[in-house]
Every structure is written in C-alpha cells, then in structure tokens.
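[Automated response] Your request has been received and processed.

Submitted sequence:
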Amino acid sequence: MKDYLKEIEKKLKNKIDFQNLEIIDNSHKHKSHKFFSEEKYHLHLKMRSLYLKSISRLSAQKLIMDILKEDLKTKIHALEISIE
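Generated structure:
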C-alpha cells in the first residue's frame, strides 16, 4: 500500500510543481458500500501547489485526473482532490 501511494506521488511530481502532497487512504470508510472492492482505493489528495492555484480549479483537477488516468481505471475507485 505505501509503495502504491509513493508511486502516485512520483507520477504527480513528474508532471506538476507542488510544495506539499498528502495522500489519505479512505478505503476503510467505504467497506459497507455495494461496489466496494479490496483491490480498489478511495483516496483523498491534499495538494499545496502555487501552479495549480494559478489555473482554474477545473483545469487543475483535469490535469491530476489525466496523470492518474490508468490508475483510475485499475486501482482507484474514488478520488477526492483538495488544492490549497
């Protein structure tokens, strides 16, 4: 799990200039949901980035989603994004 979170951080770091990133695994909060799967994560990205704050919120979120496109198909069920 920690390796996977480091992998996500590396992918984002390669494409986005940010000052701080916290990745929170909220999967345990969704175990009772109908489509819950142990193989897929519910993640919350808390990112501090002057660059992302300088563009529209929609553009910033699209950029992050594009970087994690393959992960969203295979390993991430839900992704919450907070940009400071």
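Summary generated for your ticket: The chain has one domain: 2-83. DSSP finds four helices and three strands in the chain.
If you did not submit this request, please reply to this message.
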